[in-house]
Amino acid sequence: MSIHISARPDEIAPVVLMPGDPLRAKHIAEKMLSDLRLVSRTRNIYFYTGTYKGTPVTIGASGMGCPSIGIYSYELYTEYDVECIIRIGTCGSYMMGIKLYDLINADVACSESTYARSAFDYLKNSVPHQGNAYDIINETAKAMNTPLRTGAIHSGDVFYRIDRTLPEIVIEHNCLAAEMEAFALFANAQYLEKTAATLLTVSDIIPTQEKISADERERSLDKMTDLALESAIKMV
């Protein structure tokens, strides 16, 4: 049991899938896992452990933003001996050529966040994916005939901005899309020598303000979840 996760050490699997939303974690776990157990609900952040095709997997929420996923992923890595965390979430595309529901496997996360500098004295504004999960996801997508984009993403600290121009960091790294968590996850994994990946579904097109509804978000994430789970069982 850690400060923010009430599961016993043996109740968390070596591979964890992390959506941001606790209710999305609940929905995915109940739909996709067998032998399901709710192992933590502290602060209403749900963690479920079960099996997928016979392999133990945990699905738990990260909350929103670098500070939140920073706490949960650090405790999973250090208190529960988790080896790999795959963030599964949504993002807003910066580019017109990327469509709603497209999948992105993040090669590197770029951010103005002070998370990595404050936590680990890491001074760069980008952190790459860690370990072999990124490659396994790419290989699994190819085997499943699932179209998948790869590239840099922007892990923003803010959701609302008065300046509608592209942030400088997006231009610097040619970021495909915006989200809010991958930078801290990758930084934790780098520091702790663990494995981390981020797999995203495009839910918004920022230039046109096109978006999918909240209900559609829940129903439309199956393709991403299937890919993440099929990849996860190859990492154990």
Short description:
33% of the residues lie in helices and 28% in strands.
Task: Explain how this protein is built.
- A hairpin with a 4-residue loop joins strand 10 and strand 11.
- The protein has helices spanning 22-32, 66-79, 115-120, 133-143, 168-173, 182-192, 214-220, 222-232, and strands at residues 15-18, 34-40, 47-52, 55-60, 84-93, 103-110, 126-128, 149-155, 177-179, 195-205, 210-211.
- With 236 residues, it is of the alpha/beta class.
- Helices cover 33% and strands 28% of the residues.
- The protein has one domain: Rossmann fold.
- The radius of gyration is 16 Å and the shape is globular.
Provide the gyration radius in Å. 16 Å
Sketch the major β-sheet: 5 strands, mixed, barrel
Number of strands: 11
Structural class: alpha/beta
Distance between the termini: 22 Å
| Weakly predicted, low-confidence segments | none
Q: Give the topology string: H per helix, E per strand.
A: EHEEEHEEHEHEHEHEEHH
- Gross morphology: globular
Order of the strands making up the biggest sheet: 5-9-8-6-10
Mean pLDDT: 95
Number of domains: 1
| CATH topology group | Rossmann fold
In percent terms, what proportion of residues is strand?
25-35%
Topology:
Blueprint: E1 15-18, H1 22-32, E2 34-40, E3 47-52, E4 55-60, H2 66-79, E5 84-93, E6 103-110, H3 115-120, E7 126-128, H4 133-143, E8 149-155, H5 168-173, E9 177-179, H6 182-192, E10 195-205, E11 210-211, H7 214-220, H8 222-232
Parallel strand pairs: 1-4, 1-5, 5-10, 6-8, 8-9
Antiparallel strand pairs: 2-3, 3-4, 5-9, 6-7, 6-10, 10-11
Helix pairs in contact: 2-6, 4-8
